[in-house]
Amino acid sequence: MPAKICNESIVGVFSHKCNLLIPHTRLKTHANQFAQVANNDVLKDYIVNFLCTRDQSDNKNEITLIDFTFGDGNSTKAILENLEKVKIICLDRDAEAFEKAKKLAERDPRVIPVHGKFSDLPNVLKSMNYLFNSIDGIIIDVGISNTQMSSKRGFTPEVDSVLDMRMDSTGITGYQVLNAIDEVSLARVLKTYGEEKRAKKIARAIIETRYTFKKLEKTEDLNELVAVVVGTNVRIDPYRQTREHIAQKVYNGLRRFVNNELNELNYAMVIAEKYLKPHGIVVTQCHSIVEDKIVKRHLTGNVIENCANDLALKFINHNLSVDTEEMIDLTASPWSMLEKSIASDSNVKLRVAMKN
Predict the structure, then answer these.
(1) Residue closest to 22 by CA, chosen among 156, 154, 147
(2) What is the pTM of this model?
(3) Which residues neighbour 69 within 8 Å (Cβ) at sequence distance 6 or greater?
(4) CA 24 to mean position of chain CA atoms
(5) 274 contact partners, CB below 8 Å, separation of at least 6
(6) Which domains does the chain have, with CATH numbers?
(7) How far apart are CA 47 and CA 338, in angstroms?
(8) N- or C-end of the chain: fewer Cβ atoms within 10 A?
(9) Are 70 and 92 in contact (CB under 8 A)?
(10) Which has the closest alpha carbon to 342: 303, 269, 270, 293?
(11) pLDDT grade, residue 12 (50/70/90)?
(12) DSSP conformational letter for 218
């Protein structure tokens, strides 16, 4: 039976942290379309090589894995094709993705669909009698799925729709944020969560438009405003040879903020550390520097009170001097890095680590 968790409404709507960068398919060059396929193949290879080859020598014990981001089900299907004795807990906060997981579970009893956020998972695992150190492997593919990108929920500037931006049906919408947030906070959201260099300029234009002309309700309204502010419709990266809509980073920042994505990712890394068995494997794929920074700092032990440190260790205090023993304790990590892949022509970063 699928487990369903009621999502709680977002509290403190102007205090989350969030980011992601996936250019829309229509704006990509042929080279970048190939790169996207290549990145998906790399993720599949990592899953097969690091998760689907464990405990196959005796072929006695059933392996328990968690797909934190079921999405379109590609990662889960790769596991099912390569492992016979496996149980996969498929988590997703999106109702459409959850329905896909339920349909897959009807065809394959090895799949356990769960509807909820990363932060809901401890209660789910407790209800299933899973304790700490009981999971063999975890997959975390951060971002939005192809289905979400093409949906009419305002995830991308390429699809005409209302600025909803929610992955589930609870909490604030992107439209509500744009029509309630102050200029300073909006600029911080666009800069921190969306990596938008013109964050202050765009934020001011949004606030002035809101009070002078009209409220921003649809994607076409936001697209037109950002294009006027920046002076073009397309952003071109000369180094990666990629093209994306000029408002894409604004959408990324707002979406991460609305869905509290970075805090949820931080929570996911804590859950992975607590629930994986010793020598358990975590496979992560991130589509932005902001997301990968959280993953990397958890894996390298740069964590303060279960949260990824905002600063790299080398920037914390230039005047601080510690002995070797203190340095080992400071940089101690429960993880051992096994593999990483950082694409030169995109922001996709894949990492594989083993719990010590």
Answers:
(1) 156
(2) 0.83
(3) 75, 91, 92, 139, 140, 141, 142, 143, 145
(4) 17
(5) 132, 133
(6) 25-146+261-355 (3.40.50.150), 153-259 (1.10.150.170)
(7) 13
(8) N
(9) yes
(10) 293
(11) very low
(12) B
Residue-level pLDDT at 342: 80
| Helix segments in the chain, DSSP class H | 30-50, 74-82, 95-107, 121-127, 146-150, 174-178, 183-188, 199-212, 219-230, 248-259, 261-275, 289-299, 324-330
For tokens 């209660």, the residue is: 123
Tell me the mean pLDDT in the region 281-292.
92
pLDDT digits (tens, 9 = 90+) for 186-208: 999 999 999 999 999 999 999 99
Measuring CA to CA, how many Å separate 191 from each of 19, 68, 260, 291? 9, 27, 15, 14
**H-helix or E-strand containing 135?**
strand 135-141
Q: Are 193 and 264 in contact (CB under 8 A)?
A: no
What amino acid is encoded at 330 in this protein?
Answer: L
Which residue has tokens 């290879």?
45
Let me know: does 155 contact 148? Beta carbons within 8 Å: yes
